[in-house]
Amino acid sequence: xxxxxxxxxxxxxxxxxxxxxxxxxxxxxxxxxxxxxxxxxxxxxxxxxxxxxxxxxxxxxxxxxxxxxxxxxxxxxxxxxxxxxxxxxxxxxxxxxxxxxxxxxxxxxxxxxxxxxxxxxxxxxxxxxxxxx
Length: 133
Prior knowledge:
By secondary structure, this protein is an alpha+beta fold. It contains two helices and seven strands, in the order βββββββαα. The protein folds into two domains: about 80 residues, ATP Synthase, domain 1, CATH 2.60.15; about 45 residues. The longest helix is centred in the last third of the chain and has 22 residues.
């Protein structure tokens, strides 16, 4: 599998995705970053946003509400509490996710939580606009 690596997306309940990938773009805490095969090992915090995964057979956008990533030369593992495939999201689901984030924002009590939830709300509103177009 020259030029590819194992991409896994894991939630507390199950493995949501495990496929060979050519490239993954991640919403890191310091900004987006791209991972290719052979990447230097790194562990990073992920902000709410969309992962853009170029798989061997397709490209997928995956919304996560934040999490962590472990990158190794032959694999990328994303740990996210909640995730969904953008193309599979319906307007009601997006609205429910947005309501949860807005409710949590009202009770956020520190700068990191405010930044995290504000980012989630911005991304979810962007996804809603994309579905409405």
